[in-house]
Amino acid sequence: MAVIGTGQAHGACSLLHAAGTGYGAAISLDLPVIVKALDRPSKRELKDPDNLLTSVVDTWVENQLPLPDGLQKDAIHWAVASKIPANRGLKSSAATSVAAIKALCEATQTTLGDAEIVSLSSQAQVAAGVSITGSIDDSWACLTKGWKLIDANSEDIGEGVVMEGPGLNPDDWIVLIAAREPRKVRPQLEDFGPLFNEFEKALIALQQGELLNCLTINGRAMCSVTNDIQGRKISNDAFINGARSSGMSGSGPAVIIVVPSLVSSSAERIKSTLKRLMPEDQIIETRFLTMDSDELEM
What is the pTM of this model? Predict the structure, then answer.
């Protein structure tokens, strides 16, 4: 067995669900994933229940991109190492597809721009049935650092980026994730209509640079969309214990809790509260990933 290509990406959490208004945004998190393309099956079991990686290869071929020398598409195998809990709204599908595309680029000496990688990732996720919007904002956040507000209905991936920013300083904030049990079903587009005004408020907050307020408003709206009473309670309790922002990410059930790093005692109180509701391994502490000055200039 030989590794023919390796790609890396990272997880993210929602600032604004694209199904709410047609505009979506996600912000990068330090939840790494590494995907390796192999010429033979790995000895370790590959967990890919949605056949996302098969969809990545199919999408690659459909876009007339080259396969690794001497291999047919069915002969490409995969190994995945991920710190992103699946089916929680933490963008595991976007991150895995982005990393797999980067692995195929390395395996075939193919150079793709960021917008091209995001486009392939979005196509693969739709084909695999793991996204109702294409998750373009998620793929951007998993490929690059910081955040981008995207127009989900734009015909051009690059031109669809409406706003972007470096993100929140990882030294200033502790990010806690109440991952909870994996979701069983995803909401449908029609479930978002009644909450349009709330998602619009989140969009306005983001346009005004209020990222944490946006995360909270969007997260509360998502609890209503999914009728997640416990998720709303987790968010409310987090505020009582000192959180600055809290809300559901993606289509859930993960709840993101942002705490100022200067009051780490608040983070400990929140973790103690969460331990009464879920196994300790479902409580994750991480940080934001922020673009540095060189990346901003690019």
Answer: 0.93
